Amino acid sequence: MADRTLTINHADGDSETYTINRDKFAGVREMSRGNVYPTIFDSSFSHSGVTYTKTDEETFSLVASSSSGKFNLTVLKPANGIRLGKHRIACDVTVNSGSISSIIGYYNDRDSDATAGSSEFFFNFVEGSNAIDFEIFDDGIGDPQIIIRVNSGSTCDISFSNFKVTHNYEEITVDRTAPDLVRTIIADGQTITIDTTREGVRTLTVDGTEITIDRTEEADFAGLLDQYSGAARAWSFQTLSRAMVGQPVVRVRRDSDNIEVDLTTPELTDGTLLAFTGAGSGYVRTIYGQDVNSINLNQSDPVKQRKIVDSGVLVTDGGLPAMAGGAYSYNFSTLTLSGAFSMLTLMGASSDQGLIGSENNNNRIRAFTNNLEVVNNLAGEINFVNLDRNPTNFNYDGTRALSALYRDGTNSMSLSVAGQTAASAPQTLAGDFRWNQILGYRDNIKPITGKFQEMIIWPSDIR
Q1: What is the pLDDT of residues 200-240, one digit of tens each?
Q2: Does the global pTM surpass 0.70?
Q3: Distance between CA atoms of 4 and 10, rounded to whole angstroms?
Q4: Would you say domain 45-170 falls under CATH 3.40.1840?
Q5: Rounded to an integer, what distance in angstroms lies between the CA atom of residue 436 and that of residue 71?
Q6: How many Å is the Cα radius of gyration of the chain?
Q7: Are 130 and 89 in contact (CB under 8 A)?
Q8: Distance CA 292, CA 233 (A)
Q9: Which CATH class is domain 224-458?
Q10: CA-to-CA distance for 158 and 149, rounded, in angstroms?
């Protein structure tokens, strides 16, 4: 069976290549990994009686006819990204004529100082398959390079194929001959066994040392979005579904050096967040979307971001992490709702502040002391009033409360706040809602000054 190769390209331009050998007997796989250099430095040319022809990055030939001097083919040098450390050259060599002794390979850091390791290392190729391991040093004086040399006076025709130079080459063996729920991995001589025979529990044995990871509690976790699935937008500092267990819910920037970090729900309260910010403040850059499309809530401008840590103290409301009030809204990709929908919010709005909206005034939901105004794309406007009809009813006074706004299939809308239904509900309002900002609208119009913890929107009536 043919080998399989997987290359992972990282955002910083680095890459890792995994090669899986599938020729072994059933249940065992050998893999190798490392950074494969993408290019050979020299292009094709003819010089000193030697013709070098480069077909592609893995295939080339060297043809010599009584070469008048030493010919150096530069494979790697600083200009095409050579690195220090362990390397492997792998290739297949075919001698079409002449002798393999006509060529030799070497590494050289181009000076005579070997204080940081050997400044020169020679290696020989053989006909057939080659795997040559060596280490590159650099004492800071010369520029390290890898070269293939054709010796003076040579006459030969030699072809190279499958030529690769790999930095930090490593071999990994995965043994799957054990029961299905047990895996053994051998990497750089280290044996790791992963036992998953107990549901929700992972037991790792690393060279005889056992580590147990018990995730049975996570396996039993059921969040709001497991019960009410299909949310179109969902932002919260709490984990809302089993699929989000262990996943980051927020990205925080610390003001001391503007470094950002992703954090899970437990990391907001277990000391991880405060250890990151120290005595400084932490600002919310992104609240990650927990909806079916993973639509994030963003504020990229540091000046407009809201605090989750204030001078070393976690911002909370009701004992749970929260985002402090601010002067600007947060943005998301536009959501259009043409029919029934449900919206749950957990925040503290005050009089004349916008819960959700867009770049214009035509789509917005705005809170006042005793009513909630809903404006729908110039198609209409309704007000849920009398929220403070008696002392037990809720006022929009900045107090944290759960609000639930619904529209059913007949465009009838209803609102409840802190568990109480607005006195004037239900009302009818047809037409599309289009939103792309929360905690205000038009960037800095009617911003929410209370604390924010959660907003979820479903494109259906979930009652």
Answers
A1: 555 666 666 666 555 555 556 788 999 999 999 999 999 99
A2: no
A3: 20
A4: no
A5: 64
A6: 32
A7: yes
A8: 8
A9: mainly beta
A10: 12
- Cα dist. 338→231, 352, 362, 415, 435 in Å? 15, 26, 15, 18, 12
Do 45-170 and 224-458 share a fold?
A: yes
Under 8 Å between Cβ of 351 and 458? no
Distance, in Å, from the CA atom of 243 to the CA atom of 346, rounded to the nearest integer, reads 22
Map residue 38 onto helix, strand or coil: coil
The whole-angstrom separation of Cα 2 and Cα 79 is: 34
- Nearest Cα neighbor of 158 from 255, 87, 53 is 53
Q: Give the C-alpha separation, 234 to 289, whole Å.
A: 6
Q: Identify the CA nearest to 167 among candidates 46, 254, 242, 86.
A: 86
Which H helix or E strand runs over 334? Answer: strand 330-337
Q: Is 409 exposed, middle or buried (0-12, 13-18, 19+ CB in 10 A)?
A: exposed
Residues 127, 73: Cα–Cα separation, whole Å: 19
- Cα–Cα distance for residue pair 181/146, rounded to 1 Å: 45
Q: Where are the domains of the chain?
A: 45-170, 224-458
Rounded Cα distance, 11 and 21, in Å = 27
What is the number of other CB atoms lying within 10 angstroms of the CB of residue 223?
Answer: 18
Alpha-carbon distance 159 to 152, whole Å?
18
What six digits make up the tokens of 61?
A: 């030939």
Q: How many CB atoms lie within 10 A of CB 29?
A: 16
Residues of the chain with pLDDT under 70: 1-33, 109-119, 137-142, 171-220, 361, 378-379, 386-395, 422-426
Indicate the DSSP class of residue 305: P
